[in-house]
Amino acid sequence: MAAVIECRKLTKRYRGTTALTGLDLSVEAGQVFGFLGPNGAGKTTTLRILLGLVTATSGQAWLNGRRVPDPAGLARVGAMIEEPAFYPWLTGRRNLDLLALSGARLPARGEEVAAALDRVGLTGVADRKVKGYSQGMRQRLGLATALLRQPTLLLLDEPANGMDPAGIREFRTLLRSLADDGTTVFLSSHLLAEVEQVCDQVAVLQAGRLVDQGPAAALATARTQVRVEVDPADRDTALALLAPWAARPDGPGGVTVEAADGRTVNEVLGQAGIWAQQIVLKRPGLEETFLELTEPVGGGHAADPR
Amino acid sequence: MRLIRAELRKLGRPLTWGVAGAAAVFCVLLAVGGAHNAALEGSTPAGHLPSCAELGVPAGQQCTRAKAAERARVAQANAQPAHVAAQLNPLAAGAEAAGLMASLPGALALALLAGAHIGGEWSGRTMKNLLTQQGWRWRVLAAKLISLWLAGAGLLAVCWVALAAAGPVLVRADHLPAAHQSAAHALGLAGSQVARALLVLAVFAAIGLLAAVLTRGTIGATAATAGVIIAMLVAASLPGTGRWTPATWVQDWMGFPAGQASITSLPTNFWSRFISATAAHGELLGLLGLAGLLAACWAAATVLFRRQDISG
């Protein structure tokens, strides 16, 4: 499959702060791609570079096969960056209409605007001024902006912020239906449960560096641990036997190892005449995996440079 | 064109209507004061010339010169009512409106609109939306500049309409004499000044554009634009700067009378009264200077904006 987003050694430095360091990333067409990372990890900076809003200090990026920044490459790209902002003295419909007028020509502008509003469930309040919108309604309007040009690629930055549970559910359904229609979705989010449910692939960013990438489920599976309970007298022997699996003591008779299943662990111990009293498989969720990947040594997350 | 339409629609906001209303009120109040002043000046008794003793000068050549000056002053005062009546003619009022908009009132009005219309895209964090729809940054700037310039032209039209409506009423109320000027002459005068004012408004808009790109905010853009305009006037009054200041180019291009000569019952502008030098260097220099300034502001704004990170 062709990559619709490609980043090579992408680096961005703001005055004295490095927001992104040598990011290598590839997103294939038709995927729902989750982009995770704590505040200040460089997610929004990456999106801004891809959209030509910010210039990379070094490295290269391609969007739909075009070297960034290339305004022509944005023709079928829908984007929503951070909290979307609008002209408060205009209605939601008018705001959307102005954005439709500002870009490439839409043959049936009014209909496209109405369809986008309908898709995000804003038709009923479309003729109210935006200054009266709640944050959730603004998020929906931002999503409508991104959907305006029937994009083949959607770049979304924290799109579900401020949405109520029903809104989040609708949003999840919308993303899946878009993906089913062949739209590639690049989703930066803090809502790990959402990402886990919706995304095919996930990349985790920490302090401007990519720390892991892969299928959402595989990312967690790779960190599966096995806890073996043996007789306390045998614990040190078990630790030595299981050293190749990064064994570490876990309680008086407990040993925890990094392994995908308990069978191998049990076999190694059994061959040495040590019988496991209990074997527990610990499979972390995406949230635990995320925290493990992004927790810096000494605890706490990096400060937010952007 | 679609981008310009979008920008013009954004200008349909309370601030724009407020500025237009304020411009209309300002023009009408100025006309009310001007008509009243002219009526008072016109009531100066003609025919009586003060003696040398009354003028406080000894008889002889000095007294003759003083009497001639006094005679000219009285003649000018007596001519004021007819002159103001001519200025307030509905067609000729276009020249008055053009003079006001191509000077300090127009500059300050455009500074306000530049702040909100261009600087506001950064303050309101809407620039990122706009640039994700329209990635060609120079097009965004061009649409901003043209729409701001059209807003300035709109303010001029509002002022003209207000003066055209109020003028005949004021002439009648203050018993000013009928102005003997043909409609063609009045329209020719207005057309010429309006056309000239459009270039000056474009320069004011370009200064506002550059200020917005540099300051990236509503307040910064408004303050910087107003500051630059005032600095232009201050620079023009400095000895030795003479013909090389933008304020002088505006004065030359618009044909504003210099210094005290610009202060009449109904002033044609709020610009040259701040410039003490009689700097008549010709309209060609004014045209070239203003065109150069417009091009320089546009070029600087596009170069800066092309490289600017939109991080808000």
Explained architecture:
The complex is a heterodimer of chains A (306) and B (312). With 306 residues, chain A is of the alpha/beta class. Chain A contains ten helices and 14 strands. In chain A, strand 12 and strand 13 form a beta hairpin. In chain B, helix 6 runs antiparallel to helix 10 (218-236). Chain B has 312 residues and is mostly helical.
Mean pLDDT of chain B: 88
H/E series of chain A? EEEHEEEHHHEHEHEEHEHEEHEH
Main beta-sheet strand count, sense and barrel state of chain B: none
What structural class is derived from the secondary structure elements of chain B?
Answer: mainly alpha
Residue-averaged pLDDT of chain A: 85
Principal-axis shape of chain B: elongated
List keywords for this structure.
heterodimer; A: alpha/beta; Rossmann fold; Alpha-Beta Plaits; 2 domains; 4-stranded antiparallel beta sheet; disordered C terminus; B: 312 residues; mainly alpha; 73% helix; 0% strand
